[in-house]
Amino acid sequence: MHDKIDKVILSNEFKIKKVDKCVYVKNINKWYAIVCLYIDDMFILDKNNYMIKYTKKIITYKFDIKDLGVVGIIL
Questions:
Q1: Total count of domains within the chain
Q2: Distance between CA atoms of 15 and 50, rounded to whole angstroms?
Q3: Which domain holds residue 49?
Q4: Has residue 73 been placed in a domain?
Q5: CA distance to 30, 32, 39, 50, 61, per residue, from 47 (Å)
Q6: pLDDT tens readout for residues 48-74
């Protein structure tokens, strides 16, 4: 499954961070979208709500996801 996620995210100009193969970053001008995978969870981080919606759209095109909203605490 990780290979399929890699293919979808990387084909949309995200880059894998060398220090952690489960972190992807996309830079557009001064904005960064960060996608973090952890087992069967995915976190999309950005200060720009547009980039979060854009990233969700990319992912939902190929995968069925359940959006649990804004994360309050990550343990």
A1: 1
A2: 19
A3: 2-62
A4: no
A5: 11, 8, 24, 9, 23
A6: 788 888 888 988 888 888 888 888 877
